[in-house]
Amino acid sequence: MCTTCGCSDNTKATVTNLATGETVAVDEHHQHDHAHHHTHRHDGHHHHHDDAQSHDHSHHHEHGTTINLEQEILAKNNLIAERNRGWFEGRNILALNLVSSPGAGKTTLLERTIHDLHGKLAVSVIEGDQETINDAQRIKATGCKVVQINTGTGCHLEADMLARGLKQLQPPVDSVVMIENVGNLVCPALFDLGEKSKVVILSVTEGEDKPIKYPHMFRASDVMIINKIDLLPYVEFNIDQCIEHARSVNPDIKIFQLSATKGDGLDNWYNWLTNTVKINGESVAAL
Amino acid sequence: MHELGITRNIIAIVSEQANAGKVIRVTLEIGKLSAIMPDAIRFCFDIVARDTIVDGATLEIREIPGLGRCRECRKEMRLEQLFARCECGSNKIDCIAGEELKIKEIEVN
Q1: Which of A3, A101, A257, B51 lies 20 to 30 Å (CA to CA) from residue A264?
Q2: What is the pTM of this model?
Q3: Which residues 77-96 of B have a C-beta within 8 angstroms of A?
Q4: Domain range spanning residue A141?
């Protein structure tokens, strides 16, 4: 039930545990499933879309009981997200929600991070994609725990999908869970999953004005990673301008510049990760 | 087609809260910076409401203008988008209103 792009509900979403190969459907708790298959009979009925101000429905002026709802339209998702957040906190797990356009390098950055921090920091991964378990197989090859969530027609992960995925993943205490969201800079901004931070990844082969083109996502993120900086000599990407745009949308955003394939700048990213995870009050970096 | 999903959510929440009563009015608060277009919600509303207890209800949308506050000089300003520059030169602006996405109230018979 994407409120942003109208992609259909998550009844087709599935969770695949790469350790067992088992695939299960995400809970179908759509008790209000009406109007999903309405037919579009446009003959002879009017939509009133030409004049939104004319209150043509209210001819009768019926007076009923007014119920003050003050209900957030995304309340259900937010409630489950808070439960996930508590679940992570109780296990001392740092959960990061990785978002980007398709192809910005999320999976490559994850592969590299898992590989380079091996033995220092336990990382497990929830992979979100519309279809295929390709990304999860890439992550599995690094030896880490991974569960794939396929959203079907859905364009983003929702908190209940993550809750289901976590039951399969069973990440260890004192660790990091990386949630690789569906490649999309629009809808994932609106859906809290219960993560500690959203990390938005932008590559230099994209435009430097992405932060102001998709301001919701850059505002919702605590961290921005500018990836593929090894390609800077070959592309017209103004990195200072990009940073300025990002800060104008989100003055507090933390920024890393790196190349996940060549390795430049990765140390700063690793330092941040290992300083953020604390075990018995001490950061992993100090252990 | 952005707003079809949100309209489904609205109808679901309203149907649940109306306690099987007939809904005659739904009032929403939508912030101008919420990335949701009121006209598109209006367009979807009648279609999604059909054959539910919300069928025929009046849809009222209150649009909440964007409001920002400068972190440097604390001045408040209208925001037309999520980023802006204050008169004092700072671009550190917090959005303090305009991102609402809420069902304010419903009227039930």
Answers
A1: A101
A2: 0.82
A3: 81-85, 91-93, 95
A4: 75-277
